[in-house]
């Protein structure tokens, strides 16, 4: 089976999650050592907390998983779960949030790793192909990985 592109995409997903990469940053490096009390703090009212950012990423991963499984899309920019509050997230707990976040990446990889490259050209909805979805998810992860870095830097300055 020809799936060089799929292998490349799964490697990128893994790199951003917990592997060494050119950026020398990944989610495990950024969030694994964040204590629970710090995870729910906003360094400034205008910036999201680490937990809010991780939850936001998780929700879009879950939405992508639904699409990869052929299920109907339901998350929108205006959905309440798109940006959950710290009070809501405290009820979930930091360890559970991280665990669900890491598991979502494994599920994404499991769903695509044995697909042929042609799978990426299939549409999950009119005009949108799986390649667009998965590459967009990687871009989204990288964007918010940078935001996590800024948030954590400001949190450390305030201590």
TrEMBL record:
Alphabetical list of Pfam families matching this protein: DinB_2
UniProt xrefs under InterPro entries: DinB-like, DinB/YfiT-like
Signal peptide as annotated in the record: none
Gene3D superfamilies: dinb family like domain
Domain DinB-like as annotated: residue spans: 27-148
Domain of life of the organism encoding this protein: Bacteria
Name of the featured protein: DinB family protein
Organism of this sequence: Negadavirga shengliensis
